[in-house]
Fold this sequence. Notes:
Blueprint: H1 8-13, H2 25-41, E1 46-50, H3 56-63, E2 71-75, H4 92-103, E3 109-113, H5 121-128, E4 132-137, H6 143-156, E5 157-165, H7 174-187, E6 191-197, E7 200-205, H8 209-218, E8 241-246, E9 249-254, H9 260-271, H10 273-281, H11 284-289, H12 293-305
Parallel strand pairs: 1-2, 1-4, 2-3, 4-5, 6-9
Antiparallel strand pairs: 5-7, 6-7, 8-9
Amino acid sequence: MQNLSKYLPAYIDRNYKKVEGWLGEDTVLQITRINSVQTKLGISGNVGEIGVHHGKLFILLYLLMQNEEQAIAIDIFEQQNLNIDKSGRGDLSIFERNLETYAGGKSKLKTINADSTTIGAKEILSELGGKLRLFSIDGGHLPNIVRHDLNTAASAICDGGVVILDDYFNPEFPGVSEGVNQFFLLDNKELVPFFVGINKIYLTTSKYAEHYMDFFTQADLGIPYCETKKFRTYDTHLSPIRISEMFGSTVLSYSPDKFGIVHRLFRAIKRNRTQLRKQLSNSSTWEYLKSTKLGNFIRSIANKLAPY
Ligand SMILES: C[S@@+](CC[C@H](N)C(=O)[O-])C[C@H]1O[C@@H](n2cnc3c(N)ncnc32)[C@H](O)[C@@H]1O
């Protein structure tokens, strides 16, 4: 049996950056934390993704597997004539090579090489032999495809499982929000959103939403939190997390850019000092602030905390 845990730290730390695709540092953090909640709550199951491209996010899911769990990758791969909205470009051989390189093999991998709208939960579950606890949707970005894939995921995840849906807020792909809205208004009976993480939304079965939200308010996302146990007392002025509502459910939404500079500062100090200046100088807020009095003040603190 493959020992996946030995590949995980390097993938989370740096290797994910070497795989072509779409996965940011915040999402890596969010998915690994969701995985920790599942471990704590004893939620087990398989993992999978519709739309894997070269495996950037999929490999993270793969490395989070425990024991007998298995992973399923669904993509049209070489049949790119079916990629109507031209979102990414799956390539099975690059994908498998990345799995070999960053996860040490593919012995726990199942693949379905097909247009996701031609399959449903039944095919996925018969491949895996059981439900999923983590299911990422990032395949076709048109309304009918997204709606279909969400229905597939809703039937394929276990109680407390999490569906991670990409691009709901991406203006490049308005079809994604349309498909999600149709799903919530016309089809869904099981899933509730609980977290908005920049471009991704996270859904789970209703009785578990509070567990995940509770965890996210307590989690160290780079800013000190106070009195976060009860969502009511959460201080949105100090935090990149806001309590909001979506499709009739309470959600936490995370927008680091709101307090981008404070957030980056705290996180960089915590991680390592050399990153601090890089993080600061990449911030658009910093561009705006750097010649002001506040900018000078921040610079003087940075000089003390993270000298060159
Ligand atoms: C945006 S990319 C996925 C990015 C990937 N999740 C990552 O971590 O980098 C979209 C992928 O969906 C695939 N795709 C597009 N339409 C599809 C469909 N109808 N069914 C299955 N896969 C599809 C594309 O081939 C491509 O690999």
